[in-house]
Records
---
Amino acid sequence: MSPFDAGTFASLADVVGPRNCLRTPEDIAPYATDWRRAVGVAPVAVLRPADTAQVAEAVRRCVQGGLAIVPAGGRTGLAGGAVALAGGPPAVVLSLERMNRIRSVDARDFSIVAEAGCVVQSVQAAAIAVDRLFPIMWGAQGSAMIGGMLGTNAGGIRTIRWGNARELVLGLEVVLPDGRVLDDLRRVRKDNSGYALRHLFIGAEGTLGVITAAAMRLVPPMRAVETAFVAVPSPDAALSLLSRAMGAGAEVVAFELAKRICLETVARYGPQLRIPLPLESPWYVMVELAAPHAAVPVRAMMEAMLSEGLEAGELTDAVLAENEGQRAAFWRIREDYPEFSRMAGPAISTDTAVPVSAVPEFLRRAEAALAARWPEGEMVAIGHAGDGNIHLGLKAPEGVTREAWVARAGEADMVVNEIAVSLGGSFSAEHGIGVSKLHAMQALKDPLAIEVMRGLKRTLDPRGLMNPGKVLPAN
Ligand SMILES: Cc1cc2nc3c(=O)[nH]c(=O)nc-3n(C[C@H](O)[C@H](O)[C@H](O)COP(=O)(O)OP(=O)(O)OC[C@H]3O[C@@H](n4cnc5c(N)ncnc54)[C@H](O)[C@@H]3O)c2cc1C
């Protein structure tokens, strides 16, 4: 039995239309979980507004009725942020999926205005259609949406060149927790008219308001692109190769590092994906160089860089993608890894970042600390080494259940997080806090920073109904 009177739902159904106010358990079930299968509670309803005015009115009525609001996009978030929680006020999931219009694309401005429910890949396609590039790229781009991308300030493979999602945003349209619409879809690069409010909502994981649309930057398309799959003897060698790549003459648009076990996992669970080199090296790198003009000799630059690296002992083998199909196949290895790692069994995972120069030290210290406490586990490590963001995990031995591994090695994440922080890094590089990193937030975030965040939250959301229980640890 729902604790709400029929009038509450009738009123919400009036706003979004009865077919977009989902109430039955079967309709609601998909929205009660996410890609990670994070478990919360089923929301009391799922609302699927069609436009900003509907979002604003729905938020107003939810707040009047004391309902919490959990904004949701593609539900590919890895921190459990888009799932309603037990213990708080009853919640509706506000899915932005029907707000999927590209409002404008301007090739001369190098800008695009997209609604929050646009799938990231559709924004990439809209940019390509006007001969521009929307440069953000990661494995879940075919499902993740612009609102979720900005709610988490997603990073991905090309952060090394174009930054996190935040760095692409020119302006935002946001429905505040009181239902007012903050309309700041300015498409200008320069605007110093006071506080940059948009940055408050980016990475706030829906705790300060609902992003309904964003004006974002596009960049010139890369017309000469070369991708290499490289065997390297160590993370130190990989970093020397990164320095070399930075001076190769073209843009370094990706630089990914993977421990061999990660590629063995891909080979085991994704036999359709061919690993381009024998799995004999302890570490591998995927590096992409690119330039916006086809005449730039990126191939020659890549070859020179790799042969100098070989001579210097920074790599032991390398293969270049020969065509677009091969290039895409190389990236599938990296992008599909999270799915295969899920199949490979339980692991305690992390999302850390350290200064790029500290990556080798970080990996050394983490491996030693994990092996000392949990010798039966195996360290996995894959990540965006070019920006210092390594996804390090402790994989359970074969046959151990998730529950048993969490009971045994659940503290492994904090061991790794503490090492990252001690090296001047972060325990949450790109996935956000959601609920899964609240304990790290409590233990490792500067208490003053948390106090300031709580003050902002109180100011914007005095009733605490915007995605409660996420990001900020309980007082
Ligand atoms: C296979 C795989 C690979 C991934 N690789 C990467 C990677 O390389 N880099 C990376 O950064 N992430 C990665 N992710 C994580 C995930 O894809 C990103 O966090 C993504 O940005 C989430 O988008 P979404 O639409 O699925 O958001 P959701 O999961 O629906 O929501 C995420 C958070 O944003 C909030 N939110 C959603 N919509 C709005 C809105 N309109 N307004 C305000 N808040 C909102 C939600 O409440 C929630 O807190 C990966 C995920 C998967 C499954």
---
Amino acid sequence: MVARMTNLATHPPRVAEHEVLPLLVARWSPRAMSGEPLAAGALARLFEAARWAPSGGNVQPWRFVYAETGTPEMAAFLDLLEPGNRVWCVRAAALVVVASQTTLADGRPHPTHAFDAGAAWMSLALQGSSMGLVVHAMGGFDRARAPAVAGLPDGWAVQCMIAVGRPGRVEDLPERLQAREGPSSRKPVGEIAFRGRFGAGA
Ligand SMILES: Cc1cc2nc3c(=O)[nH]c(=O)nc-3n(C[C@H](O)[C@H](O)[C@H](O)COP(=O)(O)O)c2cc1C
């Protein structure tokens, strides 16, 4: 029997309402990973992609703290995850904590630090997707403990965690996750973009 691997070729393509860059529609968040380490330099390419994201004042308030499979740090990062995420992240090649600096150099609150870190995450995700990797963001982790585990100084907030890995066998996922393994759809443009006033037509 041929194993059902997680990659886009095994799933029906998503259909965009309007013409966009194909990689935007091709990216999705698989959970099935093989457990193998990444190729040398792969993670650096993901962080390089994040580096070029735009940010308010070009402050670049994002930071990425990562752990790779087989290291003590990986065990500690895995332990941060909610059980529902840990169950599939045991086959991740790396886990990443995304942090952002909440204040500007002069001490004032930075109003766009989270927005900027989100832009950097998306660049990272698109780069990983284009390299054929699983890149999956997670909000389900212990936010109280994450800053200490990642060694964040004061003034830094954890935004998210990310699983990165090589695609794996869908059969290795728990049954309930096997059923969900595939690209999801989206709200129509008319529901998210308004001309002039919230709720008005596009
Ligand atoms: C901020 C954020 C938090 C998320 N948290 C989780 C999570 O804890 N567990 C999980 O399995 N997926 C998580 N996801 C993945 C989303 O469920 C997924 O991106 C969404 O359903 C859209 O699907 P797609 O990424 O495959 O297009 C998260 C995504 C984002 C951006």
---
Amino acid sequence: MVRLIKKPFNAKYKDTMEKFTVILKSKMQELPNMAGVYLFYEGRNIIYIGKAINIKERVKNHFLQPTYKDNFFIEKVEKIGFINTESEIEALILEANLIKKHQPKFNQVWRDNKNYFYVVITKGPKPIVFIAHQRKNENAHYIGPYVEGTSLKKTLKYLRKVFPYYTSQKHPHNKCTWCHLGLCPGPMPDIDEYKKNLRKLVLILQGKRKTAFYALKKEMAVAAKAKDFEKAAAVRDRIHALEHIMGHAKVIEQRHVSPDQWQATQAIFESIINSRQSIQKIECYDISNIQGTLAVGSMVVFVNGSPDRSQYKKFRIRMENKPNDIAMLKEVLTRRLTHPEWSYPEVMLIDGGIAQLNIGIKAKNESLANTTAVDIARPVKNIKIISIAKGRQELFIEGKKNPIPLKNLPQEIYNLIKRLDDEAHRFAITYHKKLRKKYLLN
Ligand SMILES: [Zn+2]
């Protein structure tokens, strides 16, 4: 049994996965509109690796709308390699394996070890599975590193349905919540079976899908031969479930929109909010606090419809007593408006509703009253403030009397607002967790 579980952990992933096609940068139009992994070459060196739902669009996006990070390497790219994958999960896994193998310079530069993700499977009689940032425990197997936590979490969540696993050492005598969801092996599992399943999970995570399916099919055949038809049927169902997940699960977050997509969205957005200028930069604000003690404001930035993380900002609320969200929001906006060097946006989106909209307008007007510099006053004056009331599902727009029900917005605008809001929320929570950890440690 030990041998069974050990073998795939230590085995190297096969190079057969790495049949990628390499083309010149000038032939970018020939890239496929398919999910997969792409590699940027400078000479013969791979300098950056990424995954995408649509390789062609994503690669074009790097060049046409380079982010702050892209600017460090995009000029160096001479050739582009790519591999189509049959699914998003496979793109995620392949990206991880290729980054591990080639360690591209510009994947490394931006992420210290803390920012990568590993799937950890402990050794011992009853292994548990979880995600971690660092390889700390010698008594565990680490699979990865993976670049993106959200995609990895989604993938594991799907796979757990086929290969139920424990996430903590102690299991209650009765069925737990996870048991009822079919995600936990239960209080009294057959440990050999459990480890066999983990072994297949590992195979999938290492990109050896075929081997995993082969093992399952063999298991089904053995059960059928032993006339254990119930088990054979159960294994067959799992094969089908796994096939479905591997082919259809949507795990990669599409963070970037293509220039064509953005052009269309931009025009509609400008007319809806009655913007005086062409919208390129949108900032979105969120205030969060834990029982009023740790209040945090966060600002996320979208440029041409895609998040630009290099421009995100966090604000520790300075005011004493932290009276309410509205006052805290005003502090954040006022502080932000004193930073012309961050370049002003055309739109500020604030989470909340009418009160938040009004305080945004007030912060803007007060900033205007406090400056005589034309190069600050003009862009600040032109900022359009909008606010989303999630409870009532309405969008308030500066200068418009009545809010627009979100359901009446064109789909692309609804999606844009939703992506901005989700991203602000995600960013706020990440920062909050960090702060809370620090706070608890002190
Ligand atoms: Zn359980």
---
Amino acid sequence: MEPSTQRADDSRERAFNPFPWYERMRRDAPAWVDPASGVLSVFRYDDVQRALSDYEAFSSERGARDASSALNASLISSDPPRHRQLRNLVTQAFTSRAIAQLAPRITAIIDELLDPVVAAGRMDFIADLADPLPVIVIAEMLGIPTSERVQFKRWSDAIVSTTDSGLTFMDAQREMARFFSGLIAERTAEPRDDLISHLIAAEIDGKRLTAMELMGFCVLLLVAGNETTTNLLGNAILCFDEQPEVYERLRAQPDLIPSAIEEVLRYRSPVQSMFRSATGETDLAGVLTRPGQPVVAWIGSANRDEARFPDAHVFDITRAPNRHLAFGHGIHFCLGAPLARLEARLALEALTIRFLDIRRIPDAPIRWVESSIVYGVKNLPITFAPS
Ligand code: HEM
């Protein structure tokens, strides 16, 4: 085989099974500088945790703040003190208490998505449930009118998702920008009890957010929250498919669902890696960084580190403690974690009540997300027996 083809195959293989590579790297090269790119990768739990949380040594800022990415100026890409100011604007809407109030509505959305497919005894788990659920929930939180929901999903698919929306990235950005400026004008004139109205009214040092910053927030919530939650749900089904007795057990003991979700987050982390850039010279796992050096913290590897998790390669829904890093660590810890956990719990509760059994359709081809950051599948055909 040609070396380049070999590399392409390696990276495809690594997208859906990076775990043997992580294991080798934790053992043989826990802090590895790629000679071609100069990027420093760390693989062990303690080093990943440090890179994620030591914001003085490892910055989250991205280089170019170009217009194509409203995200470059957003919460996830900022350091203190700006980070704290931006985060303060949205924490209230995302506390566990605020999120818990959404439960009845989220359950209703899950039922609306499941009702039409139950009779068939089969569904594409991603297209029919895992993909639409988080988009509908965040659209409702933001205050997007129901009549615009279909459009909104198309834009968000084109901008962030790997499913084909039939729209180009640029067209979607343009249409969404037009839509948001209309909505912002409406809510400025007549505020409601929704996240957009709340953000419009918010001030940092007496200054309101600009329209671009407001849009940046909305896009961040889409980018950070949708595909990740979709993949958490899909990855749960992949885990259950490998051990059918787990699904049986969850049907009998639904109170284990929250800890099963934590184990899916650890074992098949939807976000496998995060970027930082070194601010100066610092020792990370025995390597002295240079200022500006890109650093990759391999969350997916930290979560399989035997030094932290006994029998790390075993999927165990009763694992305790389970201090995985799937939602990050420190000041950037995932804002949407309570929401993702709630959506996953309610979805798995609905499935275990409504379906006796869930199986992947044997031999039905599965397409993996080809990325070293996002881990999940684009489609997941399953059969089930309604209970
Ligand atoms: C299973 C689903 C999810 C996973 C695995 C996940 C993972 C993560 C991770 C690893 C980070 C840390 C990034 C860093 O350290 O640089 C993060 C941050 C963030 N997440 Fe999530 N996320 C999920 C769902 C959500 C949802 C549903 C939302 C919102 C609707 C959301 C919004 C955010 C935001 C705004 C940040 C940036 C926080 C900050 O920089 O202070 N995420 N997420």
